Amino acid sequence: MNSPHFTSHQIGDFLVTALSDGNMSANLDLLSGIETADAGVIQHRCGITEPGNIHINCYLIRGRGRTLLVDTGTGGVNQVGGLLKGNLGAAGVTPDDVDTVLLTHGHPDHIGGLLDAEGRPIYKHAELYLHPLEAEYWRDDEKLKMASERVQGNFTRVRQTLDAYTQSLRFIDGNEIIEGILPVWLPGHTPGHTGFRIDSGDKSLLIWGDIVHFPHIQSAHPAVSIVFDCDPAQAEATRKKCLSQAVREKLLIAGMHLAPTGFAHILMAESGYRISYPEE
Ligand SMILES: [Zn+2]
Ligand SMILES: [Zn+2]
């Protein structure tokens, strides 16, 4: 079922397709817990030619008569990314076809695609799912006051977006979103950071959001965090848990900042773990 442009995996009734939103620059010096030079060596060794450039994925889930989108990319704000809409169309889906948008968290490279240039909802017929702690965090005036100017812009964006989607906003709890799609709370990167898991027979997929930004570096060194992590210690604990679970349960991993093919397995390595991208 793989189209020439997109990578898809069938998990039970659901066809999950990685859709690129493009790239964004994220310098290696945003990482802590590793020397920039050492991080560069890992990138180089893994064949990454632009070490300070990370990819943005979104995922389309189709099945059981439903069309779900997981995250929406940047929306092209500040000339970054914005390719999702075109790729969605190329996959045969219009924004009006999307009945559910699942958000991993509120960062601009995940929610930016929800509003058009006039601040109106693009996914007009979709229910929008978000973890309640995520909404609480971005609506917290004390947190806003303490944030840097750049991060304050993120608060404004989340608030505008949630306001525009008030009617269709649903909060994630421990229950399945729809039968077969289970939310998994993965806190640390942000307080309400959430993954989504689909299990069928011997196949299991975890869409893990922003567990890693630099897949090769942070799988080899799970203690390495990035400046965007709200709570680096919690993010590290969650990342370690996810990586060991991915190995133990042989999970297929989908992640918003994996390579453009969008899916990977996690293997044990001499030190830490190793990302393995399946041949398509
Ligand atoms: Zn993020
Ligand atoms: Zn991100």
UniProtKB/TrEMBL annotation:
<dbReference type="InterPro" id="IPR036866">
    <property type="entry name" value="RibonucZ/Hydroxyglut_hydro"/>
</dbReference>
<protein>
    <submittedName>
        <fullName>MBL fold metallo-hydrolase</fullName>
    </submittedName>
</protein>
<dbReference type="InterPro" id="IPR001279">
    <property type="entry name" value="Metallo-B-lactamas"/>
</dbReference>
<comment type="similarity">
    <text>Belongs to the metallo-beta-lactamase superfamily.</text>
</comment>
<dbReference type="Pfam" id="PF00753">
    <property type="entry name" value="Lactamase_B"/>
</dbReference>
<keyword id="KW-0378">Hydrolase</keyword>
<dbReference type="InterPro" id="IPR051013">
    <property type="entry name" value="MBL_superfamily_lactonases"/>
</dbReference>
<feature type="domain" description="Metallo-beta-lactamase">
    <location>
        <begin position="55"/>
        <end position="257"/>
    </location>
</feature>
<keyword id="KW-0479">Metal-binding</keyword>
<keyword id="KW-0862">Zinc</keyword>
